[in-house]
Design goal:
Length: 241
């Protein structure tokens, strides 16, 4: 069953398998959400997993699979994603977002709206993208962000991604709001960083929200605690399965 908020709370069968749409809050890791939902099932032991990591500083749609539906995670993860976000032009950070302090400042007084909108065109289509040094990708069995925090330099390899839409929705320099539709594995932080470099400048990501994954929308998603409290009620009523 595909469970989403649009239909209220359906009759769940978590063991047989559910696909749940969750609105991940800012600061929560994707694993925090998985853990919270998995723990709510105890003492029932159920498989729970997510279909596509969202950074802690990002919010929005996280697809959670339970029971036998965890076998479908790769299928959901492969779907095209839509994001909305805000970048800050003229400033850069090592992590390409607000996790680390600004370490680069560039003049943006010469940059206008026409230049900004024209700059998006080169990012449409297939791209070879470097992941951020502060990312969860594993190198030699260890997450990149752990190496970055120790000040270690790692030779990064590009990943092939695809951007089908890149729309500028608001310009209030130094802030630029945007909407992106992209393939699995696209780092929006890297896209923002590369966007700044393409203007002979710098930029970092200050806000990000995943709004869609395939045909699934965040507007139809459950809040984490809303779902967890419902699961606990089912458990109290001996209706959890």
């Amino acid at each position: 069953m595909n469970a989403n908020k649009e239909k209220g709370f359906p009759e769940f069968n978590f063991a047989e398998g559910e696909m749940l749409l969750i609105n991940k809050p800012i600061t929560w890791t994707s694993f925090d959400v998985v853990g919270k939902i998995r723990n709510s099932f105890k003492p029932l032991k159920l498989k729970v997993g997510h279909a596509g990591t969202l950074d802690p500083l990002a919010s929005g749609l996280l697809i959670i699979c339970t029971g036998k539906f965890t076998k479908k995670i790769d299928e959901y993860q492969a779907q095209e994603k839509e994001y909305t976000g805000t970048m800050v032009l003229g400033a850069g950070t090592p992590s390409y977002d607000m996790e680390t302090e600004v370490d680069e400042i560039f003049d943006i007084s010469h940059i206008n709206e026409e230049m900004i909108r024209a700059n998006t065109k080169q990012f449409i289509g297939a791209l070879d993208q470097y992941p951020p040094a502060h990312s969860a990708i594993k190198v030699d069995g260890e997450r990149l962000y752990l190496k970055a925090r120790r000040g270690e330099t790692v030779e990064l390899k590009t990943r092939s991604v695809s951007i089908s839409e890149f729309e500028i929705t608001r310009i209030a320099l130094p802030e630029i709001d945007f909407r992106v539709v992209c393939s699995k594995g696209t780092y929006i932080r890297s896209l923002v960083h590369d966007f700044g470099r393409a203007m002979s400048n710098v930029a970092y990501l200050s806000a990000l929200r995943r709004t869609k994954s395939g045909d699934y929308q965040v507007d139809n998603a459950f809040e984490v605690m809303e779902l967890v409290n419902h699961i606990r009620q089912l458990k109290d009523q001996a209706l959890l399965k």
